[in-house]
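During the second half of the funding period, the structural biology subgroup turned its attention to how the target accommodates small molecules. The most pressing case was flavin mononucleotide, which had performed well in the primary screen but for which no bound structure existed. We therefore specified the complex as follows and requested a full 3D prediction, including the ligand pose.
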Amino acid sequence: MAKIALGVTSSVSIYKACEILRGFQKAGHEVQAVMTRNAARLVSPLLFSSLSGRKAIVDMFADDLPWSVAHVALAKEIGLLVVAPATANIIAKFARGIADDFLSTFYLAVEGPVLIAPAMNAAMFLHPKTQANVRELRSRGVEFVEPGRGYLACGDEGVGRLAEPGEIVARGLELLRRSESLRGRTVLVTAGPTREPLDPVRFLSNRSSGKMGYEMAREAIARGARVVLVTGPVAIFPPAKAEVVRVETAAEMEAAVLREFPQADFVVMAAAVADFRFAAPAGRKIKKPDLPDSLALVRTPDILKSLGGRKTTQYLVGFAAETENLRENALAKVKAKNLDFMVANDVAAEGVGFDSDDNQALLIDAAGAAAPTAKMSKRELSREIWDAIEKAHARRR
Ligand SMILES: Cc1cc2nc3c(=O)[nH]c(=O)nc-3n(C[C@H](O)[C@H](O)[C@H](O)COP(=O)(O)O)c2cc1C
């Protein structure tokens, strides 16, 4: 049994929120209703309090809340936040990070899954501002139950009708299940580039931003896994609950990965390890006149390949950046390196891949089945990739 927060805002479809609350209860979960002040003007909070058996929260500064800092305490207790119905206003506030009442403040404190079911007039829903806000929230990992088409309370026909309560409950339950799907598993993720020094100030590296690997780590944490994140130097923050191991060179990354590998259930190698290092790095800065005309390079270890040779029960996922013949090249790597799963990126494509916020990939399992994804944020893509990994992993067993 989980605790679910049901955010209720001031849409005419507010009456359907009662059915949603009931649906979660029937599935065995506890529900805490959180209403906006405007929602409480449409319907008395007493209705939600009596249905849920717990006092509906409306006021941020009420002195009868059961916690001292209620928005933070409640955020830690719940497994899911569902906002249904969600007004254009609350979607805009969430997208901007405005925290001027209990629900919007609470949203910022929630680290777990968030599901939003919008309900509004078609013109409001299709307004470019609302659409941009929905896109923004999606790219940050919030999920939506699309509103339906039909007769709207305002008398118009069109898109904006709150999705059916049964559909909202089903999606909510799916999100809850997913938040536990890697519980008890240890996931090792590598991310970012490596830096191969020539001397203390110069190095050889690549354009990896680390974003894809960090999102893979974030999503594994969201599914309940223990995550060890071995990361090269990047300019982004790791997910709060990751156990972070910072490395610089390919050799350091290899050592860290080999140390963590035996304990791992899943290994996700998203780092862009430099292929070469300088043959003779200097301990002090080499003065320009002393630099030779050419510098000798030697190959760095192929970490992925060596894991492929060592694996016992680990499920090994590789990332490949290709500029041509994506499927053939990626499949060849799956075979050559004894991988279980491969995420292949076309890094020559516009607006995706290295250093970009968006990505698009071809997901390939060990049997060679390949599924292309749409272009989406790396946050959203990490979810698709983990869904596919979990499915392929279940088939393997
Ligand atoms: C009867 C009535 C019905 C409304 N229905 C909706 C609606 O379905 N969707 C919406 O976005 N706004 C709707 N509004 C407007 C919102 O209530 C208004 O934007 C309000 O400021 C939102 O506050 P909240 O998001 O804090 O609940 C409605 C207003 C009224 C008076």
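Two results from this model are relevant to the next phase. The chain is about 35% helix and 25% strand. The chain has a mean pLDDT of 94.
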